[in-house]
Amino acid sequence: MNTQSLISLLNVTALVTMMLSMGLQVSFEDLLASARPTRLLVMGLLANYVFVPAVTVGLLNLFRADPMVSAGFLILAVCPGAPVGPPITAIAKGNVPWAVGMMLILAGLSALATPPLLSVLLARVAPDRGLHVNALAILQILLITQLLPLLLGLGIHHGAPKFTRLIVRPVGLLANVLLLALVGLIAVTQYETLAAIRLRGWIGMGLLMLASLGIGWASGGPAVATRKALAATTATRNAAVGLVIAANNFAGTPAVTAVVAYGLVSIGGALGWALLLGKLAPLERKMAPAGS
């Protein structure tokens, strides 16, 4: 087995395990609670499926990015629901239960929303290059690797709570180990390619990450804790899903490098933001009006 095949296998395995772990940690009641109030849910969906892709297209046009690089960024732009969103929300002292529910909703919807959105955006950004993806194949992949494990985890959590308590921690640990192994293997094999990215490219990725944080914050309603949750959820894109799509449609191209690079930037940037807000949280409580 060559390195690329190993990365693909590890990526799919990690994604399935992460989705199963997500489902095991949340009840249907928690998921339904995250859908209320409806206005906040709608704003979360708009932030992730409309506003972030729109800003991504604008920045790609501004920086005149290569079409294949654009493909990588657009893949992540339509792949929200990263499993790192809730832990980063916790570091920022935000609304973790709501972040978990929103992450699950986004992860589930991505299986249906990502293929058509990506097809439309690719045609918009590079109409003369004829870039296209196999939307049906992406739908099949995401249903198998993302939606089904997620539903399986939710079903086990609901129908076998005692069994869930036995396996939830080992499955979560395995998911984290697989994810770290995947990131490490990609970093080693893609080191030279990542190192070749120019400063202009890193600046563009930083701007996109900051814009995504701002979109999530502005869409999160009046409560600061929920603003933090939606900002973290919106800024962190699902790189594992993005890699599956990129590897199956643009293998061996800069699109894969773009997914890896921005996946790292989005997680690292959101983590730094969360650490800062976490340190400021005691000050926020002191300054909050009495009875709030």
From TrEMBL:
Subcellular location: Membrane
Keyword entries, A-Z: Membrane, Transmembrane, Transmembrane helix
Bilayer disposition of the protein: Multi-pass membrane protein
Pfam families membership: SBF
Entry keyword annotation includes Iron: no
Gene3D superfamilies in the record: 1.20.1530.20
Keyword Cytoplasm attributed: no
Location (main, coarse): membrane
Family matches, as InterPro entries: BilAc:Na_symport/Acr3, Bilac:Na_transpt, Na+/solute_symporter_sf
Entry's transmembrane regions: 6-28, 40-63, 69-91, 98-123, 135-154, 166-187, 199-218, 256-277
Any GO CC annotation of this UniProt entry: membrane
The protein's name: Bile acid:sodium symporter
Organism annotation: Singulisphaera sp. Ch08
